[in-house]
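Sequence in, structure out.
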Amino acid sequence: MSLDQQLRRYLDGLAAQGAKPVYELTVAEARRVAEERAPLQFSLAEPVATVREIDVPGPNGPVRTRVYTPASPVPLPILVFFHGGGWVTGSLDTHDGVCRSLATRTPCVVASADYRMAPEHRFPAAVEDAWALMQWVSAHAREIGGDAGRLAVGGDSAGGNLAAVMALRARGAAGSALRLQLLLYPVTDHDFDRPSYVRNATGYGLTREAMRWYWDQYVPDVAQRNNPEASPLRAADLSGVAPAVVLTCEYDPLLDEGVAYAERLAEADVPTVHQRYDGVIHGVARMPDITLRAWELLDDSIRALRDAFRDGG
């Protein structure tokens, strides 16, 4: 399918502005650009009954967490959400619109994690912070109006990577049973030679070289990238993890590793739904101001959460 025309105009506009690729920027510049673009991509701030920030005890200090609680009877199901940005950029603010929509439309409590990022804090810092938040939410669900018996993890891109790793860690862990892992175009491996990496290397926002740069910041030791907590696709056994919904995009370097992860989950008898969205690019769920296609991924994510949280789900 040809690239969505609204996305094509957006990408052409960035090129006309002379936007530099992330790997030609300093880390500080890359973060500033991500923050500046976010409100231009997703300006809708859906009203949520309460939005508050709390500090959750972490392995290296508190993990700042933004908790979205919709105006619905409590206790509500809970989604622990991890933002994308290559483990380097992105923040609670860049993904605020997504979290508000998921919270109000599901409805559920969303706990969005401000985990430590690279290169200041390399692997496994983000994983450790994510796990600390998961454990805290499981133990303190009632304090945020939630139901620990209806718990899911989710995230986009690098956040999808963390969500998948949390599902691996939660397998069999006391008090950490998950209803769902919601993975939006997740990073699951570090193989830059997959066909989608070659086919979508440039021209569609996220590039092959950008992913090399992100991995260099997060896990500079290439041998360490084989660790399943960095590349969950390399886990020897995926059986027993939470049911999964994996959403992938046609014009995305990460397409093939997302598909491969969904296939491996299914082969391990994990209830898995994979949906590929043709004509769109990596990161599209955060772009409803750019293209209406963004709502396809968001709406499907909301339906998946509703189904998982339904009693008996």
